[in-house]
Write a structure and sequence with these properties.
There is one protein chain. The chain has 345 residues and is α+β, with helices and mostly antiparallel strands. It has eight helices and 20 strands. A five-stranded antiparallel β-sheet has the order 6-7-12-10-11. Strand 17 and strand 18 form a beta hairpin. The longest helix has 19 residues. The two termini are 36 Å apart. Bound molecules: flavin-adenine dinucleotide. Flavin-adenine dinucleotide binds next to strand 3, strand 8, strand 12 and strand 13.
């Protein structure tokens, strides 16, 4: 079994650079090792944190009193249009690989940090694509039954930044993910207006996949959304808040406060509002600082630890100030996107 090390600080394993020590830390280099580590911790009643790239985590200053299993399984298998990657494969490396083969379906998810195994957890998405559009199956270790099983896409319960994996957070450990990625050289229809404009096409048109990837990476870099050690704005967990989805009654209430507020239609007659717009309109501009924690200077939705000098408590104090300010000024409740470990907003 993989070696367990005591007292490893988690901050260097997260993109926010936050988090105290783990009770025990082990790196699992195969699906078998992941299962072995998690199953033995479960038998001993020891809490488990499955750690990917740490890009969607806010870990408490006190750390995590249990076993942290760092996923490091590698390998990609391609059969026809089906691409199966082990959970520990770097996500953007997979995107680069399939785009180089002219496969389409995940090119707009270029530059998202983290590992393959985390992509189904919150149904990772950007620029009009999310993984629910291409995932056909997920191999998981079910901690309740103690079995390795294959879930179909339907069984994953995907919705906007959500899935059964997020709904039942301590149940499934993702071991591998299969995506259906046809090799026709063209991107999926470009659904996102900003990306279509950057590519000089109309929404719905298709472009060579490599062009779509390049355009997405360029847009993301401009927002500090591609990890870059030289860019302090990328010391974040990505978007800290999801875009709120309002009922018609809630939307009518916001309309009274801000006539003509920006919105998109969401399924079921609901209305999605850009969280970044809410934050800016509640008085929190880009670069807004609270001690060592700062809103990104490029993207209002990212809370950052720019000098790696903040504590988790300080970043969360900024998050609460923003959340409470939006509620007070605009009457909308923001919900955090990153997973909280040993702490809460
Ligand atoms: C600069 C930046 C930009 C980002 N942009 C986007 C974006 O455009 N769209 C988007 O959706 N997200 C974005 N994110 C968020 C993040 O990158 C994604 O959520 C990513 O999928 C997280 O992967 P990870 O491996 O780092 O997961 P981690 O942060 O390590 O873990 C996240 C959660 O998944 C669980 N987990 C991890 N691996 C497994 C596994 N194998 N089995 C079961 N549970 C597991 C963890 O326990 C934790 O609960 C961004 C983050 C950053 C820092």
């Amino acid at each position: 079994m993989a070696e367990r090390v005591a007292g490893v600080r988690l901050a260097p394993y997260t993109t926010l650079g936050l988090g105290g020590p783990a009770g025990a830390f082990a790196e699992a280099s195969s699906a078998e090792e992941i299962v072995e580590l998690v199953a033995s911790a479960d038998r001993a009643g020891e809490p488990v944190l499955v750690l990917g790239g740490g890009s969607n985590l806010v870990v408490a200053d006190e750390g995590f009193d249990g076993l942290v299993v760092r996923v490091a399984s590698r390998g990609v298998d391609i059969v026809g249009d089906r691409v199966t990657a082990q959970a520990g494969v770097d996500w953007d490396a997979l995107v680069a690989l399939v785009v180089a083969e002219g496969r389409s379906g995940i090119e707009c998810l270029s530059g998202i940090p983290g590992l393959v195994g985390s992509t189904p957890i919150q149904n990772v998405g950007a620029y009009g694509q999310d993984v629910s559009q291409t995932v056909t199956g997920v191999s998981v270790y079910d901690r309740v039954t103690g079995e390795v099983v294959g879930l179909t896409a339907g069984e994953c319960g995907f919705s906007y930044r959500d899935s059964v994996f997020k709904e039942e957070p301590d149940r499934h450990v993702v071991l591998a993910v299969t995506y259906e990625l046809a090799r026709d050289g063209l991107s999926g229809p470009i659904a996102y207006g900003e990306l279509a404009a950057a590519l000089g096409v109309e929404p719905g048109e298709r472009v060579p996949v490599a062009r779509a990837r390049e355009a997405v990476l360029k847009l993301r870099r401009g927002k500090g959304m591609v990890l870059d050690a030289a860019d302090p704005d990328t010391r974040s967990a990505g978007s800290f808040f999801t875009n709120p989805v309002l009922t018609p009654a809630q939307a009518a209430e916001l309309e009274l406060r801000v006539p003509g507020f920006p919105r998109w239609d969401a399924p079921g007659g609901l209305v999605k509002v850009p969280a970044a717009w809410l934050i800016e309109n509640a008085g929190f501009p880009k670069g807004y600082r609270r001690g060592p924690a700062r809103i990104s200077t490029k993207h209002t939705l990212a809370l950052t630890n720019p000098e790696l000098a903040a504590t988790t408590a300080e970043v969360l104090a900024l998050a609460r100030e923003v959340r409470d300010g939006v509620l007070e000024k605009l009457g909308v409740t923001l919900v955090n996107e990153p997973v909280m470990v040993g702490t809460h907003l």
